[in-house]
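Narrative summary of target 7.
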Amino acid sequence: MQDWKSAMKQPSASDGEIREAADRAARDNGEQLNDDAAEKPAQTICALIAFTRTGCELAMALVERLKTQAAFAQTSFSVAGPARFAGELGIDVYESLGAWTAAQFSHADALVYISATGIAVRAIAPHVRDKFSDPAVVSVDEAGRFAVPLLSGHVGGANELARAVALATGGQAVVSTATDVNRLFAVDEWAARRGYTIVERAVAKQISARLLEGGSVGFASDFDLDWDVPAGVIAIAGGNTSAQAEGENLEAQADDRACVETPDVGFVVSLDETCQPFQHTLHLVPRVVTVGVGCRRGTELSAVSGAVDAALAAARVSPRAVVALASIDVKSDERALHELAHERGWDLRFYTADELAAVPGDFAASEFVKRTVGVDNVCERSALAQGGRLLLGKQSGNGVTVALGMT
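Modeled conformation, tokenized:
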């Protein structure tokens, strides 16, 4: 196997080659990637640390190579090394491994240790909490021969990061998660890649266990999903399930459903956490809903939150599906809106009257609102300012108007 320096001298893998490698990994996991499914958060942070000059040089070269991969286009990188040569190399200085790990573990999305695996394991051990919230952690030897995902292989993306590192160095990703080793569908990785919120963690484990035992799990969706339904997954009636596959697809499965008993455990992609298509249901909730709000000046938080929760309940939309709270810019100083967005972890967006007036569609118009703020409707237009369609039209009460839009 060539060393990493030789590998780095080779032409950078094209987007097509990277895509092919990603598709291979995804097919091993029982699915076909599409552009929407492969989308990552708008900005992610990847922090690398090394302890020798050779390791630091590998880290720096690795960053440059990863930057050429489309999957890392929105990733911010940092490299840290010992003070004795960090200045010369133009990288950050770490005072102690423990302090660096503590700082990065709390805010970075991924940590890469150019070191022996044991060093990385001891460093992260005090901070490990939960695979659904811990960052991805990968260790890479100084020769770049092996990239080992140590933490958050599926949900955090460590397996994919290790594969990308190996692709960059000419090395090998050492992936040991059971579903990957057995080339089975991993529902948590699939959900994370698509940006779905995983609600019932225990059921996610049940699904993996059932597949590893050679059993079947169910699947339903309220959305059209472009993917190949993998082995062991049975699509059931009741959702708008669809797939575009060259071989067996959901339509083919539908023909056999009469002969197949619905599994007692399965997963559903839905905005509604109350639906129960299976005895044990894992809800995967896409974050695609914007809550448009209008309110009187100085409205209390309790009134706004109550109106929003009532609207979500009426539309059977989980609060986990909400990505943003939106209103007109003249409400940008409303304390209740800021408090609610902060409390729920939602983005807060404000639009000018002209921007809202330009939103296409038929809305519940009010001449009074138009005279007051310059546009005939605030909540519905705000909900659709980023496009999409209305899930719930204007709801009014206690000086608050609410509408729900889905992008």
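The CA atoms of residues 4 and 144 lie 5 Å apart.
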